[in-house]
Specification:
Elements (H helix, E strand, L loop, with lengths): L20 E14 L5 E9 L8 E9 L10 H8 L19 E10 L9 E9 L14
Antiparallel strand pairs: 1-2, 1-4, 2-3, 4-5
Length: 144
């Protein structure tokens, strides 16, 4: 059956391209998983804090805890944990749910997807992380 629709004012493309640069990010999601090689991983999503891109999302940053301590990138998980103020030295355990709400500084760069249904499309990716300005102070409890 034919229908009618008023498209006046409906945005055709609401995708915002995040320019390359350094941003303060807040962790909004963290989901534990396992890589194809059997290494523990956590998939992290963020939102930008402040500036003209405030609350824009950055998805799918993978933090991998390599079993092979000599693997390329094995220290990246430790740098990430240090940046968000979590234990990262010696033997430790993590709970990715504790990461939610933590902030960090990150270099975001656009990368072109080379495989899959999104091949050829650009997405913002986290290239490196550092602690945020002012560090990661514990969240204050609000008295009621």
């Amino acid at each position: 059956m034919p229908g009618k629709f008023d498209a006046e004012g409906v945005p055709v493309n609401d995708f915002v391209e995040i320019p390359d640069g350094e941003y303060t990010l807040r962790i909004t999601e963290a989901e534990q998983g396992v890589t194809q090689k059997g290494d523990d991983k956590v998939t992290v999503s963020y939102e930008i804090v402040g500036g003209p891109y405030h609350l824009q999302t950055i998805k799918f940053h993978i933090v991998v805890f390599f079993k092979d301590k000599n693997a390329k990138g094995a220290g990246m998980a430790l740098k990430f944990l240090k940046a968000i103020g979590e234990p990262f030295e010696g033997q430790f355990q993590w709970n990715e749910k504790n990461w939610i709400g933590k902030k960090l500084k990150a270099m975001i760069m656009q990368e072109v997807q080379t495989k899959g249904k999104n091949s050829g499309k650009k997405f913002p990716r986290v290239q490196w992380v550092n602690p945020p300005d002012g560090g990661n102070a514990p969240l204050e409890e609000v008295p009621f």
